[in-house]
Amino acid sequence: MKMILFFNLIIFFNVFIATISSSNAYIPDASLSVPKIIKRHGYPSETHIVDTKDGYLLEVHRIPHGKNIKQYRNFPVFLQHGVVASSADWIINGPKKALAYQLADNGFDVWLGNSRGNTYSRTHKSLSPDSEEFWNFSFHEMGIYDLPATIDYVLERTNRSQLYYIGHSMGSCMFFVMCSMRPEYNYKIRAQISLAPVAYVHHMTSVLNSLVPYATQIQKASNWVSKGAFLPQNAASKLVNKYLCGDNAMNSALCKKYIVYKMFGEDSVQFDMALLPIILGHNPAGTSVKTLIHFAQEITTKNFQQFDFGIEKNLEVYNCSHPPKYNLSNVIAPIAFYYAKNDILADPLDVVELYSRLPNRLGINLIKFDQFNHVDFLYSKNVTEMVYQSVMNTLFKAEFADWIPEIDNTTAFNVSSDYNQCYDERNARKTKNGFWQKITSFIKRKEVYPLKNYMVEDHEENVRSRHTIKNAWNQTHFE
């Protein structure tokens, strides 16, 4: 029996070596860090450390100017990646196609953010990433701590009062959290670009949706195994990604089908398989399990809301038995949307619902290719023509000193006022009015709030609303 086991181990080892030998040659961009990749392609690269109010140390990467030109435009650009990703997403597609390089070559000062818990931001002033306390965060904390700290740092270093913000997937979600919870940051944003925006996710059809019923069990298991970390990048994951998912590896087809298509949407035309080893060399970059649980809650509740701790802790944290919804009417920064029909993470129905709840919209752009998926916004073969040229044109318009954003009136604006304003439920339970308050609160939540169209009803009220936004915009100091 021992001899049979020994021979089986030898066979397994030989198969593993054969798999490695059949893989592609060394691909530098699959193993180098983001700053080194940027330098390898001939661009200037800087690394900055931003400390958040709650003690996390975030690594931010900068491309201050293009390869052959040092032209500086009026406002810097900040790019924020999606879930379990990193700043690498913006450069993986190479100098000719990746957005970060294109922005730099067009004269922009480019800053690439890294959210807490990923490959580049696994440090805290007092907490160890081996502790559960370190991983006790979701995209809520990224929105109220990470983004404000990074934005303030970028504006201070560039001596500017505003910047452009471009977010992909959860990178847009974090922005909506920030501007709803800390509305003063709206005035620090010259324009915001949302690529495959995520906030409402109840129409999501990705394979990740099948994990929602097991969210609690996954959280318990992950807390036990990894202290609350989710898919952190380590030596083992890099080995698997490099040798089992390379372009010519035996399992390449399975990697493409189950890692890319089942999670993000099938696109055999635009997805560049040659990038897969590089993509998997940097992804997943890791996040917290709590971040995934937060998204799972939103799939179940169909709301864009704060984290649900359960009734008792909700009362302690929010003074409510339920978590408050994010008030999107606070998000008055000028925003442009880009979305795709075949995006099974940012479903078009969810994207349109989100767009309808934002008061200051520059336009919603559907990609004119039916197979375009969630990661095509980063890795598509023709992403420049399909997306980035339009994004760049929006930024060029905003460069003019007298630019005033034009609100999109073609889509109905959902002005529903059902964002939860929590009263003191603990005291209400002790008063004679407690029961009546519960009844009226229930009735209010069941009311249907109509959509208002800027072009039809309540014209005077909407004109006043637009006038208020424009006045606030004009009173903001620009360089």
TrEMBL record:
<keyword id="KW-0378">Hydrolase</keyword>
<dbReference type="Pfam" id="PF04083">
    <property type="entry name" value="Abhydro_lipase"/>
</dbReference>
<keyword id="KW-0442">Lipid degradation</keyword>
<feature type="signal peptide">
    <location>
        <begin position="1"/>
        <end position="25"/>
    </location>
</feature>
<dbReference type="GO" id="GO:0016787">
    <property type="term" value="F:hydrolase activity"/>
</dbReference>
<dbReference type="InterPro" id="IPR022742">
    <property type="entry name" value="Hydrolase_4"/>
</dbReference>
<dbReference type="GO" id="GO:0016042">
    <property type="term" value="P:lipid catabolic process"/>
</dbReference>
<comment type="similarity">
    <text>Belongs to the AB hydrolase superfamily. Lipase family.</text>
</comment>
<feature type="domain" description="Serine aminopeptidase S33">
    <location>
        <begin position="98"/>
        <end position="248"/>
    </location>
</feature>
<protein>
    <submittedName>
        <fullName>Uncharacterized protein</fullName>
    </submittedName>
</protein>
<dbReference type="Pfam" id="PF12146">
    <property type="entry name" value="Hydrolase_4"/>
</dbReference>
<keyword id="KW-0325">Glycoprotein</keyword>
<keyword id="KW-0443">Lipid metabolism</keyword>
<dbReference type="InterPro" id="IPR006693">
    <property type="entry name" value="AB_hydrolase_lipase"/>
</dbReference>
<feature type="domain" description="Partial AB-hydrolase lipase">
    <location>
        <begin position="34"/>
        <end position="94"/>
    </location>
</feature>
<dbReference type="InterPro" id="IPR029058">
    <property type="entry name" value="AB_hydrolase_fold"/>
</dbReference>
<keyword id="KW-0732">Signal</keyword>
